[in-house]
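User: What would this chain look like folded?
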Amino acid sequence: MFIYSLRASTLKFFAVIGVAIATLITLIAFIPAYGQENTAVGASGEIRYDGIKNNDDRVEFLAQFGWSVESEPVESAEVSIPAEFDKVFMQYNEIQKRQGLDLSKYKKKNVMRYTYKITNYEGFDGTVYANILVYRNKVIGGDVCSADIKGFLHGLEK
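Assistant: Here's the prediction, encoded as structure tokens.
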């Protein structure tokens, strides 16, 4: 059995500490933060999906897409994202994925759904609603749909 001992000089000790700090700073600079995943670039510029704490924030969020909505939601309800997606929910999640969102990350979670009446939808005479799904002050999903039985459903982009 051999035992080695090494005595580092003060200069070597501070050099190693300096290299470790430089490496740590480099890693912090190049690794993206988790909180920044909820931004996307839409037709009107950068869209912010986080910081949705109250009704004014939700109305302002929809305005980023060019939608004018009534000041109060038509409905607000707590909904559950299912653990297993059926065919309809998979199709709805495909709409979310096309706009940079994914509901599969939120399976088994309870989220708030806010429904607003859109007042500036062009090319359609009927009632049109915007739905947004909010979880922990972040919009995790949303759509624009008509109230007609033969209506439409699409993402939040105009």
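Residues 34-154 form one domain. If you want, I can go into more detail on any region.
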